[in-house]
Design a protein that fits this description.
The structure is a single chain. This protein is 4% helix and 41% strand. The protein has 355 residues and is mostly beta strands. It folds into two domains: 27-108, Immunoglobulin-like, CATH 2.60.40; 123-351, BT2081, beta-jelly-roll domain (Jelly Rolls, Sandwich), CATH 2.60.120. Strands 11, 16, 17, 18, 21, 22, 24 and 25 form an eight-stranded antiparallel beta sheet that branches. A five-stranded mixed beta sheet has the order 2-3-8-7-5, with no helix packed on it. A hairpin with a 2-residue loop joins strand 21 and strand 22 (263-274). The longest helix is centred in the N-terminal third of the chain and has 9 residues, at 2-10.
């Protein structure tokens, strides 16, 4: 328990600097119903810009997420209705009583959206000295497991230069050595996902406890395309050091989801899992399967709760979110994998057949 306590302290979130009554009155995250992508937040101009699909009624959108500066309040809250048929204003009140008027503006989303920074060319340096995909922490749709492994001295996901400034994401499965012995967490698998790592929910024995998967998304792609290479490690072991009678696999998959009323339903599934040694970069396309998966698909492709969008609705419904995940060891969340497994991925593209 002592080790866990240290980890939790070291991973606690760093808030905006606060001495006396805080003057900060920023909007840090914003999400409304039917939003098509992450909000663009400009703290200099005090604007929040969001994408909304064409045809959506803008006068009665519901605020689903509103994160403010520490100690600040606002004249709107989660669950409130907001009229975005024209620019709207949210007033944020800082702890010291000062007010800031934020302008909320919209534009029509593309019918064939892509994942921002899907080419993985842009990376930013964190305050801890390692790199994460995106321009900065506030705007990126991408996360990695690095916040949970760097305290043990391992950065399992790193930028990789393929040449001429073409960057990719390199994921590697590492041996955590003596640091992993007390909690039976022998390995750390490299991972890349849409979403973010919430350090307030850190649980060293459950890597996914601190991950909020997914990003707002409203397209209906037919396939997902990516370029990758994979070299599995030599010895695949479970978290107790038992050698498994099968090799390690990489995992690359995407879910289209409908998140409404506190429930999540799976709309579309595209999944690639492979133990093949593929040392050269090649391009793969994986089809999305819309609606429930039948018995011809492996069980691991279905959600644990079996909650799919119904077959009829799946033919026309738009998702609200997309979850993309890649990992160098498919069972890394259970601390099983082969040390030395390496997955390199680049150019994640959503394919629309009508294009």
């Amino acid at each position: 328990m002592y080790i866990i306590a240290i980890l939790l302290v070291l991973f606690s979130c760093v808030k905006e600097d606060h001495f006396g009554l805080s003057p900060y009155g920023n909007i840090k995250k914003f999400l409304v119903s039917n939003q098509a992508g992450n909000a663009t937040i400009d703290t200099d101009l005090k604007t929040v810009t969001i994408e909304i699909p064409g045809g959506v009624e803008l006068s009665s959108l519901v605020i689903q997420e509103l994160e403010l500066s520490s100690f600040a309040t606002a004249d709107k809250a989660v669950g409130d209705v907001i009229d975005l048929s024209s620019d709207a204003t949210i007033t944020v009140i800082a702890e010291d009583g000062s007010t800031t008027a934020w302008i909320i503006e919209t534009f029509v989303a593309s019918a064939t959206p892509q994942l921002d920074n899907g080419d993985l060319n842009t990376w930013y340096k964190t305050s801890s000295g390692y790199y994460e995909p995106g321009t900065d922490a506030a705007s990126t749709i991408w996360g990695t497991g690095n916040p949970g492994t760097q305290i043990l001295g391992k950065i399992a996901t790193t930028p990789y230069d393929l040449g001429s400034g073409n960057m990719a994401a390199l994921m590697e499965t590492y041996d955590l050595g003596l640091a992993g012995v007390p909690l039976k967490t022998p390995i750390a698998a490299g991972s890349l996902f849409t979403g973010y790592f919430d350090s307030d929910k850190l649980d060293p024995t459950d890597p996914e406890a601190a991950i909020a998967f997914g990003t707002p998304f409203t397209g209906r792609p037919d396939k997902i395309r990516f370029t990758y290479s994979y070299v599995p490690g030599d010895v695949n072991e479970d978290r107790y050091g038992n050698v498994l009678d099968y090799g390690d696999n990489c995992d690359i998959y995407a879910f289209l989801e409908v998140r409404l009323g506190g429930t999540t339903q799976r709309l579309g599934t595209a999944w690639f899992r492979s133990d093949e040694n593929q040392s050269e970069m090649i391009t793969r396309e994986i089809e999305f399967v819309y609606g429930p998966l039948d018995d011809s698909y492996p069980d691991y492709m279905s959600p644990d709760d079996g909650n799919f969008v119904s077959g009829d609705s799946a033919t026309y419904m738009l998702p609200t979110h997309i979850t993309f995940v890649a990992s160098s060891s498919y069972d890394g969340a259970n601390f099983a994998g082969a040390v030395g497994s390496k997955l390199l991925i680049d150019d994640v593209v959503l394919v629309y057949d009508e294009e």
